[in-house]
C-alpha cells in the first residue's frame, strides 16, 4: 500500500480501491463538505469530511463517526451502531450527487432500496479516532436531459484498511418542482404537530433513551404502531411532509430487536429494506414482525413490514445476532479465531 498524507498531514497507509491497486497520492481530497450537501444541517449529524473522484463512476469518501452521539449510541454495550453504515451510504450518495453529478441542492432524493451487511467483530467500540473510508461505485446512472435522475451506489466501508461492511442503495433525484407536484396537498402537513404516542420501554428495543424509541405498544403480538417523534433532532432533521426513510429503517431494526428473545443483547448485522410508498404523518402506520422461517421459535432473520391504510409502505429483512456470538473468541495466542461469529448463541 502507498504511504500518503492524511487530512491532518500525518503519514498513513492508504486504502486500495475495489478496482484493484492503491490510489495514487496525487488524487486530491475535496475537504469542503457542507451540511447542505449531505442533508444534515446539524454538524453533529454530518459524517463525511472529504471526498475524491477516482474515475467517472468510482469515488472515495472519508467519514468521521462520532464517539458519542444523541442517537447513534453503542449497541449491546460494546458495538458501534450498525445504522451508521446505511447513514454513511445515504449521506455519501447525496454528497456525490451534489458535488460530483451537479444535482441542485434544492432537489429531493427518494430512496428506493437500501441494504447493508456488517462485520460485528470489526464494529467493536475502541479508542480509535480513525476515520472510515467508503469506496463508492455509482452505477445504473439515469439522466433526464442533463440532470441526474437516479443511480445505484455500492459501498465498501473500511477502517484501518479492514472491511467493516458493505452496503448499496438506489435513489431517485426529484426536482423541487416535480416533488411539489407529486406531493400536492400533502405539503400542507409540513411542520404540523403529530401527537407523540407512548413508546415501548427502551430496553425492549435495544435502546437506552426513551426519545429514540420509534415503536408504540399494540395489543397484537409482533405488531406495533409507529411512534413519530418530530421533535427528535436526528430523526426529524427538519420539518417534513412525511416520515423520513431513516425513521422506518430504525423502526424495522427495533421491531426485529423486540421480536427476539433477548432484545438488549441483539445486533442487527444485516438489513435489506425496499420502500414502496411514503409513510404519511396523519395516519397510523403499523409495524409487523415475523420469523422469515415459519415456526422458528428463536429466529435470527426477521421479516418486518410497514402498513398504512391497508397498503405496504416498506418491507425489510433483518438479521440479528446475539452480542456474545457476534465476536469470535480469543485463541490462546490472543487473536480472534474462526472466520466469523455464529448468528445465534
UniProtKB/TrEMBL annotation:
Pfam families: AfsA. Residues 1-15 have a biased composition (Basic and acidic residues). Residues 38-171, 204-319 form the A-factor biosynthesis hotdog domain. It comes from the Bacteria. Residues 1-26, 326-345 are annotated as: Disordered. NCBIfam families: ScbA_BarX_GamBu. This is Gamma-butyrolactone biosynthesis protein ScbA. It comes from Streptomyces osmaniensis.
Amino acid at each position: 500500500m502507498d504511504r500518503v498524507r492524511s487530512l491532518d498531514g500525518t503519514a498513513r497507509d492508504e486504502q486500495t480501491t475495489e478496482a484493484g491497486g492503491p490510489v495514487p497520492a496525487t488524487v486530491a481530497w475535496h475537504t469542503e463538505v457542507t451540511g447542505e450537501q449531505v442533508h444534515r444541517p446539524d454538524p453533529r449529524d454530518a459524517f463525511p469530511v472529504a471526498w475524491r473522484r477516482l474515475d467517472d463512476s468510482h469515488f472515495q469518501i472519508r467519514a468521521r463517526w462520532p464517539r458519542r452521539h444523541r442517537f447513534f449510541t453503542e449497541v449491546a454495550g460494546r458495538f458501534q451502531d450498525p445504522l451508521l453504515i446505511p447513514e454513511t451510504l445515504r449521506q455519501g450518495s447525496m454528497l456525490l450527487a451534489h458535488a460530483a453529478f451537479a444535482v441542485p441542492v434544492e432537489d429531493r432524493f427518494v430512496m428506493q432500496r437500501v441494504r447493508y451487511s456488517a462485520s460485528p467483530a470489526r464494529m467493536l467500540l475502541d479508542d480509535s479516532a480513525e476515520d472510515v473510508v467508503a469506496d463508492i461505485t455509482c452505477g445504473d446512472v439515469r439522466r433526464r436531459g442533463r440532470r441526474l435522475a437516479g443511480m445505484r451506489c455500492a459501498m465498501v466501508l473500511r477502517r484501518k484498511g479492514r472491511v467493516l461492511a458493505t452496503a448499496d442503495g438506489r435513489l431517485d433525484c426529484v426536482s423541487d418542482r416535480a416533488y411539489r407536484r407529486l406531493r400536492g396537498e400533502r405539503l400542507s402537513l409540513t411542520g404540523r404537530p403529530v401527537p407523540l404516542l407512548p413508546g415501548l420501554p427502551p430496553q425492549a428495543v435495544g435502546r437506552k433513551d426513551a426519545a429514540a424509541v420509534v415503536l408504540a405498544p399494540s395489543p397484537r403480538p409482533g405488531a406495533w404502531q409507529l411512534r413519530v417523534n418530530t421533535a427528535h433532532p436526528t430523526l426529524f432533521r427538519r420539518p417534513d411532509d412525511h416520515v423520513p426513510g431513516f425513521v422506518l429503517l430504525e423502526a424495522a431494526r427495533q421491531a426485529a430487536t423486540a421480536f427476539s428473545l433477548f432484545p438488549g443483547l441483539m445486533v442487527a448485522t444485516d438489513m435489506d429494506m425496499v420502500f414502496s410508498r411514503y409513510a404519511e404523518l396523519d395516519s397510523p402506520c403499523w409495524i409487523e414482525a415475523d420469523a422469515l422461517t415459519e415456526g422458528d421459535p428463536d429466529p435470527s432473520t426477521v421479516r418486518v413490514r410497514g402498513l398504512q391504510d391497508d397498503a405496504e409502505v416498506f418491507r425489510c429483512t433483518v438479521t440479528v445476532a446475539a452480542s456474545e456470538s457476534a465476536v469470535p473468541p480469543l485463541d490462546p495466542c490472543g487473536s480472534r479465531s474462526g472466520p466469523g461469529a455464529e448468528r445465534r448463541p
